[in-house]
Amino acid sequence: MVAEDVWAALEEIPDPEIPVISLVDLGVIRSVDVQNGHVHIEFTPTFLGCPALEYMKRAIEEKVPGAEVEVIQDDSWSTDKITAAGREKLREAGFAPPAPRLIQLQSQVHKCPYCGSTDTRLENIFGPTPCRSLRYCDSCRQPFEQFKTI
Amino acid sequence: MNEQALLPIADDELFLGWRESEWTGIAPMLEEDVAFSSIAQNEIGHARALYQLLVGEEGDADALAFDRRLEEYRCAPLVELRLLDWAHTIARRWLYETADEIRIAALKSDPDPAIAGLAAKIDREETYHRMHAEMWHDRLKDEPRFKEAVEELWPYALGLLPPELRGELVQRVGLAEVEAVERGTHTDELAPMWEEMTEVRQSAPAGAQW
């Protein structure tokens, strides 16, 4: 088994809370290292209180039998790690993808994932999971979930 | 060294998380039901990560969180209080987040990269807690009930921080420094909270399965 095979396998694991994107799309696999048949995977949680953390770790261990999964608690994950493909999949499913961190912190512009309008307002900073806020589009009158930029 | 710096913060986050979760289902409006549940989940997640850092990757964070004797907990009295009205609840949220930002900022420059890295990660999430607290503070800051609640809890808020960080809190909150309700003693409200929190663990020491 080579690292590419491991990445391909991990791409098949859906995020348990937003199953339209995979763990690879979500950017939570920090590294894959294969040496003499031994697989070491570094995994970073999104939010520290994410209840899906153990579930994701187990899903990785089941998908790549024998792999050693190390949970990294440092600051290396942010929503900027979500891949371009991942962002597009989120948008298609009605989740406004997180804007790049630098842009978001300055602009405060939030686009509706349905009609693309920026005429949207915050309904609640918090939503059904720690990573989501609730917004409302005044243009197409559709409520939507915004992936928080962190 | 780590334990001295991190255990008080971990215990604060655990117990405050529990207290905030008590609003789940009964907050004055649906948005706050969601907000308090989410904030509670984050705070308890931060506690878990800090406990894990203290016990090492293979260590048992739950044992550190739940199996100590009451007097060994290092949480500040502020997070123990069972607050039954919204003015006090929001006053504590705002005071806590203001103080927490100061100590997390200090930890972000800790020479130990594991501590600094985790502090930076916690800080990203706390940004949203601060937005929520500031939004409520802006809304209530001229209400007499809220002002009274802030003044009542102010000595407790000072007790969250070590003395060297209190000057900044005084500046941000805008109240005069008073004698703090210090960390190290507990209120009578800790014991019933801890008993409730550990009820399943105590009744099934081998681990509950469901």
Describe the structure concisely for a colleague.
The complex is a heterodimer of chains A (150) and B (210). With 150 residues, chain A is of the alpha/beta class.
Give the mean pLDDT of chain B. Answer: 95
Succession of helices and strands of chain B: HHHHHHHHHH
- Give the C-level CATH assignment of the largest domain in chain A: Alpha Beta
Strand content of chain A: 15-25%
Number of helices of chain B: 10
Q: What order do the SSEs of chain A take from the amino end to the carboxyl end, as H and E? A: HHEEHEHEHEEE
Helix content of chain B: 55-70%
Report the end-to-end length of chain B measured between terminal Cα atoms: 38 Å
**CA-atom Rg of chain B in angstroms:** 17 Å
Total number of β-strand segments of chain A? 7
**Low-confidence segments of chain A, ≥5 residues, pLDDT <50?**
none
Tally of strands of chain B:
0
